[in-house]
Amino acid sequence: MAYELGIGEATVKALVSAVLRKTGATSRSQAALLAHGIPIEDELARARAATRVERTAAPLRLGLPSAPPAGAEA
Fold first, then answer.
1. Distance CA 56, CA 66 (A)
2. What are the 10-residue block averages of pLDDT along the chain, 74 residues in total?
3. Which of helix, strand or coil describes residue 60?
4. Distance separating alpha carbons of residues 66 and 23, to the nearest angstrom
């Protein structure tokens, strides 16, 4: 990208970081979705739900007891 624009790689990194910070996106993919007018809230909620399911399912696949819910006393 830097070569195509005739600027340094560090400049591209700084500009991409600024775009991510200002849009609230956490990845270039999310920034691209926002640029096309696609809200990322649904994507974020879906990713969080998938992460929660994976954390719960992993111990079960291994035959281990699942972890207590966050904030629960051990």
1. 6
2. 89 92 88 85 68 56 57 57
3. helix
4. 36
Tokens (6 digits) for 71? 């904030």
d(CA 23, CA 27): 10
Per-residue pLDDT at 30:
87
- What is the predicted pLDDT for the residue at 6? 92
HSE-CB at 30 with a 13 A cutoff on CA atoms is 17
Report the phi/psi class of residue 24: left, alpha or beta, with left for phi > 0 and alpha for psi in -120 to 50: left
Residue type present at position 36 = H
The candidate with the shortest Cα–Cα distance to 28, out of 15, 10, 46, is 15
Crossing angle of helices 28-35 and 9-23, in 10° steps, is 60
